[in-house]
């Protein structure tokens, strides 16, 4: 056990600020919390930058069957290791890291399979808002002594958080932490949906439903893959400018077609349908459209959006019988601790963009304003500065 001062004395509880979600649909409350030291297999991270993903808003909106309250939300961030618990070997105090909600242990049957990036090592505990070692939270509100649940194994809306070592990707220190925080979720997910899940080939046609950060990252991935036609779909025409800038060949608004299902419109535009489609919204009706706009015989539709509790997808089985494929992706199929550092390298080599997704730079205190911007459809990614790097 050691901390960022190089001391071998055991890490002590830290008092810091964190945003607590006490109830669904209510603004977060800024609290002073006690963050307990990392235990065996855990890492305490100083959060330097944090961004909001639509999934944070979804859980705060009470739509997540796994949503627990009170909790500290947030899963897209970057930071510096403050201290580590017993047995931690892959990171040390001072290392730059990206917390990863999708863990990678390199030992469970999922991690050993080339077919998936899901990891089974800590998922049961992260889903219950606690740490694996003692099934407890490391967060307590100073004033009330109330225990606060973790969220997605990351809880990055805090100045300090505790994550499992398997959820902590070490990255190079010359990468700017403000940009690379986006690799903790949205941008990686869109790129990986195209590269890993769909494995889009050069010359393919595609439709991307939802032109937020995840949809735009799909478009970026499609451009890299050499897709020849990329149709952006959004009900907010203001999103088309970004869609075209990122590489769409055209954009369509489902509201502009006199009630005709958008899948019919796309099938007509593309002589039978697209080779690949991506649903980046979380709307089960749109998931159906995204499947049904795919070409008979080979079209594949990838579900990325997270739908509300109780929602179900439907289509005629005939759509699948006739060769369309429905898939989903979590974190774009990337094996987090292995692949996130490589994505950082690709950003540093200017192969992928990150800064263009940052529409708002804000302060830690502005989190509720950032949620408002997200709900109003006014931002791609708002990135908030949490703690200074030095
Ligand atoms: N599977 C994963 O690993 C993963 C990772 C990150 C995000 N997500 C999910 O992906 C989705 C997108 O995330 P985001 O951060 O880009 O969200 P976002 O809110 O920024 O973007 C959503 C876009 O969809 C558009 N839209 C809404 N309803 C529509 C409709 N009926 N038809 C067409 N367009 C519509 C909105 O105008 C907006 O541009 C969310 O559901 C999020 O929870 C999943
Ligand atoms: N908890 C929800 C599902 C939420 C969900 O699907 N999360 C995505 C990541 S969204 C990131 O913005 C995911 O990767 N899920 C896989 C996993 O959580 O292991 C529910 O219970 O329906
Ligand atoms: Zn996310
Ligand atoms: Zn694993």
TrEMBL record:
<dbReference type="Pfam" id="PF00107">
    <property type="entry name" value="ADH_zinc_N"/>
</dbReference>
<keyword id="KW-0479">Metal-binding</keyword>
<keyword id="KW-0560">Oxidoreductase</keyword>
<dbReference type="GO" id="GO:0046294">
    <property type="term" value="P:formaldehyde catabolic process"/>
</dbReference>
<comment type="similarity">
    <text>Belongs to the zinc-containing alcohol dehydrogenase family. Class-III subfamily.</text>
</comment>
<dbReference type="GO" id="GO:0005829">
    <property type="term" value="C:cytosol"/>
</dbReference>
<dbReference type="InterPro" id="IPR014183">
    <property type="entry name" value="ADH_3"/>
</dbReference>
<dbReference type="InterPro" id="IPR011032">
    <property type="entry name" value="GroES-like_sf"/>
</dbReference>
<dbReference type="Pfam" id="PF08240">
    <property type="entry name" value="ADH_N"/>
</dbReference>
<dbReference type="GO" id="GO:0051903">
    <property type="term" value="F:S-(hydroxymethyl)glutathione dehydrogenase [NAD(P)+] activity"/>
</dbReference>
<keyword id="KW-0520">NAD</keyword>
<dbReference type="GO" id="GO:0008270">
    <property type="term" value="F:zinc ion binding"/>
</dbReference>
<keyword id="KW-0862">Zinc</keyword>
<dbReference type="InterPro" id="IPR013154">
    <property type="entry name" value="ADH-like_N"/>
</dbReference>
<dbReference type="InterPro" id="IPR013149">
    <property type="entry name" value="ADH-like_C"/>
</dbReference>
<dbReference type="InterPro" id="IPR002328">
    <property type="entry name" value="ADH_Zn_CS"/>
</dbReference>
<dbReference type="GO" id="GO:0004022">
    <property type="term" value="F:alcohol dehydrogenase (NAD+) activity"/>
</dbReference>
<dbReference type="InterPro" id="IPR036291">
    <property type="entry name" value="NAD(P)-bd_dom_sf"/>
</dbReference>
<feature type="domain" description="Alcohol dehydrogenase-like C-terminal">
    <location>
        <begin position="214"/>
        <end position="345"/>
    </location>
</feature>
<protein>
    <recommendedName>
        <fullName>S-(hydroxymethyl)glutathione dehydrogenase</fullName>
        <ecNumber>1.1.1.284</ecNumber>
    </recommendedName>
</protein>
<feature type="domain" description="Alcohol dehydrogenase-like N-terminal">
    <location>
        <begin position="40"/>
        <end position="172"/>
    </location>
</feature>
